[in-house]
Amino acid sequence: MNTGEKALIFELSKPGRIAYSLPACDVPEAEAASCIPASMIRQVPARLPEVYEVDVIRHYTELSRRNFGVDNGFYPLGSCTMKYNPKINEDTARLSGFAHIHPYQPVTSIQGALELLYTLQNDLAVLTGMDQVSLQPAAGAHGEWTGLMMIRAYHESRGENRSKVIVPDSSHGTNPASATTAGFETITIQSDAGGMVDLDALRAAVGSDTAALMLTNPNTLGLFEEHILEIAQIVHEAGGLLYYDGANSNAIMGITRPGDMGFDVVHMNLHKTMSTPHGGGGPGAGPVGVKSKLIPYLPKPIAALRSDGTYYFDDDRPESIGRVKPFYGNFGILVRAYTYIRTYGPEGLRQVSECAVLNANYMMHRLSSHYDIPYPGVCKHEFVMSGRGLKAYGVRTLDVAKRLLDFGYHPPTIYFPLNVEESMMIEPTETESKETLDRFIDTMIQIAEEARTTPELVTGAPYGTVVRRLDETNAARKPVLNCSCGI
Ligand SMILES: *Cc1c(COP(=O)(O)O)cnc(C)c1O
């Protein structure tokens, strides 16, 4: 089908063509052999494309237009909080005083940056109900691992050998992965019929070997664990700690706090909740917060304030698990999060969460007569639907996701959580207008109708993309990224 789209030509190279013009060299050329070890000197010139500047610009601009981002359109990818990132965050992160400092500068010359780190630590502690925060971890999974290493240090300091971490079957895949990486054994417990932690299963699972329970609340079904205080009591009475996966804090800001629910350790994903552009692998920031009994184990150093009003890096922390990231975390992301918190303020952050929850409930309600909602009722910032009703027409959730591409939407998260058949996990976020939500809902209704009347239209989608159905496993595991792949 000729969609009228210009084909992307990859091979633009012409021998001798260059994209620069430099004045003649007016200093003696250094002899390569005198400054580069012999084993590292190239024997043959690098095989680089020979192109001129216009070709380079057009090539990369064209490629960038094939990428889908929040700035192109609606992106309801559940559990990922793909919300609009205010551009003022980018402005502050690029301020010369932040962007051009070096981590080896004397602390007297970076007092402003230290003040920002110190204030952000405190802001996040207040927001999560924790006593102290480290900004070092570079992602959510990294925060989880850091938290679990602290939990390990805590139990060891008490002479206890606790080797098991409990996770519910709806948990995010990083939870058992982090627990394993931190040297624990993972125990998975089934959710109950309402999609919540099964209290009896939890009681049966805890014991003298329980190191921690890892939980997301609201959980990955978008539901708030109503028995969270009882859950905390069961785990604490067994001598375990509670870990809060706060990657998605978009539903709770200013409304409730993990610290008040009984959690001992939490990480937040600043690149989700605090609106850093994300996707494509980073950079991110996954600060961890802890209750006072775990403060000694926090990664070091921590930004601290002296009584004379000057800031410093507190390195004198003998029980710390050590450094988990070079320097002090992904500083630029922390500047964005600081800006986000300051521009919204406490009332604004609460409003963010209220609107995120309202948008999700509005969408779930309008879609409920067209798709299966396995756990109806009130959801939080996201909800899970099932495409199982379309199977009778030979249409699966994957087909619905592919068909959405033809309408210019990024599909929702599919086939996660694992405990819902043919699942679609939709997170509209607070930054979308009612008109956008309605357009998406109408499209989803239209696709459900197509599935019933012309299923082959849905199973054959997408029609308007550069490539159609990919071998997604191989595309992720063995990507062909060089310029001779010839798509
Ligand atoms: C995104 C996410 C994570 C992992 O965060 P990364 O920054 O990708 O490592 C963990 N838990 C939940 C619930 C998430 O949504």
From TrEMBL:
Cofactor or coenzyme needed: pyridoxal 5'-phosphate
Complex formation: The glycine cleavage system is composed of four proteins: P, T, L and H. In this organism, the P 'protein' is a heterodimer of two subunits.
Enzyme Commission code: 1.4.4.2
Pfam short name (any one): GcvP2_C
Classification via SUPFAM superfamilies: PLP-dependent transferases
Family: Belongs to the GcvP family. C-terminal subunit subfamily.
Protein purpose: The glycine cleavage system catalyzes the degradation of glycine. The P protein binds the alpha-amino group of glycine through its pyridoxal phosphate cofactor; CO(2) is released and the remaining methylamine moiety is then transferred to the lipoamide cofactor of the H protein.
Reaction catalysis annotation: N(6)-[(R)-lipoyl]-L-lysyl-[glycine-cleavage complex H protein] + glycine + H(+) = N(6)-[(R)-S(8)-aminomethyldihydrolipoyl]-L-lysyl-[glycine-cleavage complex H protein] + CO2
Domain Glycine dehydrogenase C-terminal: 353-453
HAMAP family (alphabetical): GcvPB
GO molecular function: glycine binding; glycine dehydrogenase (decarboxylating) activity; pyridoxal phosphate binding
NCBIfam families: PRK04366.1
Name listed for the protein in its UniProt record: Probable glycine dehydrogenase (decarboxylating) subunit 2
Listed CDD domains: GDC-P
Gene3D superfamilies hit by this protein: 6.20.440.10, Aspartate Aminotransferase, domain 1, Type I PLP-dependent aspartate aminotransferase-like (Major domain)
